[in-house]
Amino acid sequence: MHADRRRAESFGAASAAYDRYRPRYPEALVAELVPTPGLRVLDVGAGTGISSVQLKTAGATLLAVEPDPRMADIAAAKGVAVEIATFEDWHPAGRTFDLVVFAQSFHWVRPQPALRKVRAILDPGGRLVLLSNRIVPRSPSWSDLDDIYADYLGPARPSIVDAAREAEVVALIGDGGFSVERRTVTEQLHYPTEDWLNLVFTYSNHLTLPEQDRRDMWRRLQERIARGGVDAVNDAIALVCTPKVE
Q: Strand 178-191 and strand 230-243: pairing?
């Protein structure tokens, strides 16, 4: 997906909604990543600072890198130290880190150059972590909504991460010289209808639709879901990646 710059650069226009409605990561998962205070963490593609704030609260000494100034402004307003740049263009200036985190952002960078850069800035014993929230609606399910999505998005459902993509990423990371350990925390969630729609309409394939299509799809989904809202499951995933000894 890194080559689709239109989608990659679509989030800034919806930065306020993104910050309000994108889910936070389970505290238990974050606590595993920052077991002791003072861990030096780089949060890459930090967006509005959702993961950054959680990692800081857990005790990390954190620096964020985010290419979109509108997203970065929201992160900075929360007290996050943020530098505006793509990861490709960002200069570490001799700084190294115990943990480099991509929270639902790794698919927006070119993987092999990014992995080489990560290896260069990790301290001995340091790790790379890819964080994802995988939210799947159960009632109504994707199948209950597929006919609406098909009219606007074709066969692609609007999930943030799916199993097939995860397998591809794990293979890429292995090729980049890391071993991968998968950790997960499962949450049962309920979204009022408006909150669910506000969430999914921060996904890039929704944001890049023509405005009239977005309005029509919102209206149809709202009618289909009605007042019952959406029951969903979040399988929050951390891919903890350790450099292989050469």
A: antiparallel
Which one-letter amino acid corresponds to residue 98?
A: D
Dihedral in degrees, nearest 10, Cα atoms 237, 195, 218, 15: -70
Q: Which residues lie closer than 8 Å to 15 by C-beta, 6 or more apart? A: 47, 48, 68, 70, 71, 73, 74
Beginning with the edge strand found earlier in the chain, give each strand of the sheet holding 178-191 in spatial order.
82-84, 61-66, 40-44, 97-103, 122-139, 230-243, 178-191
Q: What angle do CA 170, 58, 242 make, to 5 degrees?
A: 25
Half-sphere CA count of 82, side-chain side, radius 13 A: 29
Q: What distance lies between CA 229 and its chain's CA centroid?
A: 23
E strands of the chain, at which residues? 40-44, 61-66, 82-84, 97-103, 122-139, 178-191, 230-243
Q: Helix (H, G, I), strand (E, B), or coil: what is residue 71?
A: helix
Question: Cis ω on the peptide bond leading into residue 140 (within 30° of 0)?
Answer: yes
Give the C-alpha separation, 188 to 4, whole Å. 32
Which of the four pLDDT bands, split at 50, 70 and 90, describes residue 197?
A: very high
Partnered with residue 67 across adjacent β-strands are none
Say if CB 126 and CB 40 are below 8 A apart: no
CB atoms within 10 A of CB 15: 20
Closest Cα to residue 58, out of 28, 21, 102, 98? Answer: 28
8 pLDDT more than 80: no
The values of phi and psi at residue 65, to 5°, are -125, 125
Q: Check residue 121 and give its pLDDT.
A: 97
Residue 177 structure tokens: 């010289």
Instruction: State the pLDDT at residue 119.
Output: 96
Q: Global pTM?
A: 0.90
